[in-house]
Amino acid sequence: MTSKPSSTRSALLGNPNFKWLLRGGVISMLGDQLTMVALPWLVLKLTGDTMALGLVIALMSIPRAAFILIGGAVVDRYSPKRVLMLSKFANALLLALLAMLVLRQPETLTLSLLGQLKLELVLTPHITLMLIYALAFGIGLAQAFGVPSATAIMPQAIPAEALQAANGMLMGLRQLSMLLGPMLAAVLLAWSAPDSAGSAQHSTALMGDARGLACAFALDSLSFLISAWTLSRVRNLQVAPAQHAAASVWRSIGDGLLMVWRDVPLRLCFIYWGTVSLFIGGAMQVALPVLANRVLDGASAFGILLAANGAGTLLGMAGAALIGARLRSTSFGSMILLMDGLAGVLVLGLGAADNAWLAGALLLTLGVLSGYVQINVFTWIQQRVAPQMMGRAMSIFMFIFMGLAPVSAAATGWLLTLISLSQLFVGGGIILITFAVLAYLLTPIRRITANTSNTNTSNTTSTAQ
Predict the structure, then answer these.
(1) Is there a contact between 368 and 312 (Cβ–Cβ < 8 Å)?
(2) Residue-by-residue DSSP string for 415-459
(3) Exposed / middle / buried, residue 201 (Cβ in 10 Å: 0-12, 13-18, 19+)
(4) Number of H-type helices and E-type strands within the chain
(5) Are residues 302 and 351 in the same domain?
(6) What is the predicted pLDDT for the residue at 342?
(7) Checking phi first, is residue 284 left (phi over 0); if not, alpha (psi -120 to 50) or beta?
């Protein structure tokens, strides 16, 4: 019995398709982390405007959320491999343009002859920001098709008995990339940082950071090209899936929404998670780079913060695998609310963080809570939802976070023009604690248990089970 998992793992590591997917996935995930650090830093150095930062994050997130269900339908209609390949090429092109834009930015600060009017119209900081908005939107749109195609290709490339091991390995590597990627980005940005401690001119600061920013975007672009090449080496185990009529796609989406609504515990949890995402999710995306830029030690501190959070998430997932089964007899809902309450306390602490190591320790602990909850939430959904509805349930779950977090990010950017960063963290922590307490006292969420079979998808009663 004990040799079966190891034999499955050994067979998986010897599978040519999985080896190509693994290599491409690791390279692409590391590249993604570079952009996650470099893009917010570019906006802050270019403008110093938190509203601009929030808008960039929103523009990258909104099309991903708005088109992800359509992206899934396109993947069902065509080959997941083909759609994923096209999304990788699109991302590579957009990031290469962004890298060239950053490299050319310093040149416009000194050129005053030879076509002056044309250069100023195209490459002034204001127009550059508009181009960043457009590129962020394009990156988000490409991800709307890349995310569902990346999840759909696995069953066509990996034997069914090895899927669980394959998904687990890739999920762990994704969290590892969240640890290593920001550290690499921090090294790149620190390498290119200007010698002067601080400049009053954002454009001057951008000149100092341009090499590292451009290098980060260029490496991410290259990572997409390399992962596209590794993807071309993958061979399908079966013919392309049968095509479906457009009407059946929309009807299946409606059936998925109806299923979630009729299952009261599922509906309660989705509404609660959506509310938390709206008020807190996007706020952290904006607040962390602002914290590093205004309070801490700059780009290197930003990398430390993201790396600490990624390490904590990895530890939390490992903890869930080790002790989660023993806690599964307790109330799933109470555990979720307790974790959110503790997370609120940690967010409160960020309001008082005045050095990178304290903020990193808080984010490490937040990551542990987040990783533990993620594994338990996914397990609960998988246990509760019938297999034939699983894809739609998970797409709705992803849609909740991808659709509401950008609204929160844009609102946070505006809010930071009215209140201090410390007040934002304190307010966010209080809101999260309040939501958890109110949900415990006023809703049946606390009574939701994890030992639920997938037959409960037909449950239409008002009692949480």
Answers:
(1) yes
(2) HTTTS-HHHHHHHHHHHHHHHHHHHHHHSGGGG-BS---GGGGG-
(3) exposed
(4) 16, 0
(5) yes
(6) 92
(7) alpha
Say whether both 272 and 218 belong to one domain: no
Tokens found for residue 366: 């937040």
Parent domain of 117: 10-236
Residues 199, 257, single domain; the answer is no
Percentage of the chain with pLDDT > 90? 9
Per-residue pLDDT band at 391 (split at 50, 70, 90): low
Interval 184-223: pLDDT, tens: 777 777 766 555 444 444 444 455 567 778 888 888 999 9
CATH of the domain at 192: 1.20.1250.20
* CA–centroid distance for 456 within its chain: 30
77 in Cβ contact with 150 (< 8 Å): no
Domain stops at, among 207, 236, 265: 236
Give the span between the Cα atoms of 37 and 434, in whole angstroms. 31
Residue 2 within a domain: no
Domain count within the chain: 2
pLDDT more than 70, % of the chain: 69
Determine the average pLDDT of the residues in 334-343. 90
The answer to which of 161-170, 234-243, 276-285 has the lowest mean pLDDT is 234-243
Q: What is the pTM of this model?
A: 0.63
**331 - beta bridge partners?**
449
Same domain flag for 207 and 102: yes
Can you name the residues that pair with 449 across neighbouring β-strands? 331
- Give residues with Cβ within 8 angstroms of 406, minimum separation 6: 57, 58, 59, 60, 61, 62, 65, 282
Instruction: Report the Cα–Cα distance between both ends of the chain, in Å, rounded.
Output: 33
Residue 244 lies in a domain: no
Nearest to 41 by CA among 215, 213, 218, 223: 213
Q: In terms of residues, how long is the chain? A: 465
